[in-house]
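Cross-posting from the modeling subforum.

Setting up a comparison between two proteins and wanted a second pair of eyes on the formatting. Protein 1 (sequence, then structure tokens):
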Amino acid sequence: MNISKQIAQWRIVAASVCGTSHLKNNQLCQDAHHWQILSDNVLVAAAADGAGSASLGKVGAMIAVETAIENISTKGLTRKSLTDDALVRSLLNDAILAAKKAVETEAANCDKQPQDLATTLIMLVATPEVVAVVQIGDGLAVAKDRMGNLLALTMPDSGEYINETTFLTSPSALDTAQMRLWRTDIVNVGIITDGLQMLALNMVVGEPHKPFFFPLFEFVANTEDKTVAKEQLVKFLHSERITQRTDDDLTLIIAAFNDS
């Protein structure tokens, strides 16, 4: 009989899928995501939505998430070091700057303008005691605490006009970036790109929608097989419940900290 206690750790399931409008037009999914669980139960995750109007939006999104995660994962973070608010904000700022520079460098290498690789970017760092996020553009990051409160860490930056947003390559990107740091007992975190905003946000009150997130948090908490869980998440994102509400590319990152 196995009586060993389960080791407390993050469980995470994430997927990016092509929207029905892009599938019909034989276009690539412009979204990208990346995540890592570092030592000492530090989770880092990022999602990006390449601009549909940008010829290399997908490339920009991929470079942004990979660079941001790589930048922060090399800093030797521990739960103790993350008790310093100034350090956390500096880490997020450095990661965003690195991602922006990498996208601009790739544009130059491809003989393109930075706006040809335009992308949004959301990056999150979480431990069981703190969650911090930085966001440029639309999309949404949330967390759930041990008391069952759903916390809106960021809200979509949709600009002055509908379907307008700020991109990582925009001149005002760093000035308009949202940064939030929340210290409480964190049990779940989530990130979505803007394709899921109509489902994940209660537009009337401007708050994240519990009936959307809570079942997903329960799902990831009970995940045993990562491969099966990702298949199930992809199936959910392709389901009629989702596609009848949105035809955009979709990215969903959900995580649960299991300490029992």
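Protein 2 (same layout):
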Amino acid sequence: MSRDARWKALLELLVERGRLEVEEAAAELEVSAATIRRDFDQLAEQQMLVRTRGGAVVHGVSYELPLRYKTARHASEKQRVAAAVAALIAPGEAVGLTGGTTTTEVARALAVRGDLASGSPALTVVTNALNIANELAVRPQFKIVVTGGVARPQSYELVGPLADGVLGQITLDVAVLGVVALDVAHGAAAHDEAEAAINRLLCERAERVIVAADSSKLGTRAFARICGVEALDTLVTDAEAETETVRRFEEAGVRVITV
């Protein structure tokens, strides 16, 4: 296992459990305790975790794993969700894409759609996510609009009043929303309040709102509320979503597509 892969695995385990002991992590990753100690020390230097006697704990109470350290957890589910979301978008539409791993997969699914290979433009994509803009900018048939703002290194998203200024001047056909958590009672949420504010504004500027979320996000809560379920038109999730959870969203007026 490479160092990068090991670090990603360590950080995901840490986010999942809140605390990791050296011996426990070494057994999980099948490497030596000395290697894990070295990894913990180097990650602590980057403020990715807090070293403790014999292990490590997450850095902060509300911890967000940076996008660059996220592995392919739920990868197949996210790709199925992304393909289904992309199929809901018509040629020529203006599409807002928030940041996140699932919405990045939506951007990739749109990029390879045969019916979007040409057009003037085939799609207009408005995003506050630098990584999504970077991936789609090489597609000349797509018109890419980046919101502006201050970049968050955890998610590559642009936030702040500069982004507000751009979004206040546009209208979207559809907003595709990536979430950290989605609950019928508490709505859609993100880790960061500034990120949530931009995502909320993208939704407000759109005719319809699609949430792209694998089933692990459903029925959970996070710190910063984006919007209530009444603002959502469609939820696309994977087939592992619990039947009762799906029913509750449908009763709240949200169309649910499971893939």
